[in-house]
Amino acid sequence: MTVGQRLDEAAWGLLHQAIDLYQHNGRAVGHLRQQVARLEQPLRIAVAGPWRSGKSTVLNALMGEEVAPVEGADGIVTWYEDGASPRATAYPAGQPPQELTVVKSATGMRVDLGWRAGEVRDIVVRWPTRALRQVTLIDTPALSGAGEQGRVPVMDRVLRDSDAVLFLTRDGRDSDLRLLESGRDGAVGQAAPVNVIMVLSRADEVGGGRIDGLLTARQLARRHQRDPRVGAVAVNVVACSGSVGLAGRLLSESDFAVLATLAGVPRAELETHLLSADRFVRGELPVRLDAEVRAALLARFGLFGIRLAATLVRSGFDSRVKLSAELIRRSGLTELRESVSRCFVDRRETLKARSALAAVEALVRVEPVRGADDLVGAIEQILAGAHEFRELRLLAALRNSRLGFDAELAAEARRLIGGDGVGLAARLGVEHEADVRRLWEVAADAQWRWRDRAQDPGLPLAQRRGAEVVVRSCEGMLAELAAGGR
What we know:
Blueprint: H1 7-21, H2 26-38, E1 43-48, H3 55-63, E2 77-81, E3 87-92, E4 98-100, E5 102-105, E6 108-111, E7 120-126, E8 135-139, H4 153-161, E9 164-169, H5 174-181, H6 186-191, E10 196-200, H7 213-225, H8 228-231, E11 236-239, H9 242-249, H10 253-263, H11 267-273, H12 277-282, H13 291-314, H14 320-331, H15 333-345, H16 348-366, H17 372-385, H18 387-399, H19 407-416, H20 424-428, H21 436-454, H22 461-482
Parallel strand pairs: 1-8, 1-9, 2-7, 9-10, 10-11
Antiparallel strand pairs: 2-8, 3-4, 3-7, 5-6
Helix pairs in contact: 1-2, 1-16, 1-17, 2-16, 3-9, 9-13, 9-14, 10-13, 16-17, 18-22, 21-22
């Protein structure tokens, strides 16, 4: 990686160097050319986790529509891409692709795989939605324990096919961490653990379903952020109830009317009917609601969601719009989407370049050829010079307060390294219309102040190293301005 060369440019050059080296291996060249094509494709984000971690619910919440799971697709990788019209294609092993019937519903779609399920390895669903304009979401089979040689086959494929991962776990238990750690082999995995966000995905169940369960889950997420073992495999930890977030995004006027009716029941009296699903659906409520209406509401919200929504209506969220926004916020979905935007979408070139490095490294490991040592050396050189990876690692360290910066310094460092957006104006904290002279003044001032911190022998080593990363980001901004950027 040459001085001033961007990471994505270095990755492109590495791929073509590998293509030249493996030119007599048609299968390897085909694989490498696919990696070159991936550099120009939307970012691939896999939603992965153990059984019953809520993968499909979180995926639906992110999209704001009920499109997953495809019925009968257990064990199959399902890709959700942007498309002009709803369409689903199955890819059976050793057979031509098969078009599947898509049935639209009021809140999304249904795809029934039927008899083909045992033959299919992948399904590609194309769905017109803004959520898929910049990313492809991948719904993966449930992760299980390690197999031979400590490998987890599904996790291996997740890391191979995706650029970034939302790793869902119910509580961040040790067995789930081991699944993540299984994918950290190789120089790229060790040097750039920047492509995973850990999601405590069933946050409404924390604390036994109490009304303050979501707050307890956020506190648990903050504790995980401070755990060095978690920090070694994930750039952020977010607590999110996919079911509450999805219910908020799909909230209809009829749903709100039912919830407002329930909110009119005294809290203590309503709570007795929310002790179990059977009691809520079949019991004698003090208000008139058909069993079918109650069952439908329970399916969308769950007991916790109904309890929370009724409480919010009583607290003044007395319209569909207000209640929807508050459910989404409380669910943690807003924080999750912001984290995906800042850590993944804003850094898509960095993450796609990382995927390219990992692909070349894996190829060299599995099929070593004469001259492969040059590729290994090129990978190590790129990793050593990749400031983009240092920024992401520093962002993770700032989130868990490991460096010891005070709140004001941590906020400035986070902004300067792109935590609030990677554009020059966002990094420098100025209005987007600011002229080049103003941008230069702010960047130069920040550079000198943070250089002083980087060279201050009285500061802890971790803070000085963090300051060095900030200085390098400021230098990059000044270089961009000098080249005519904004």
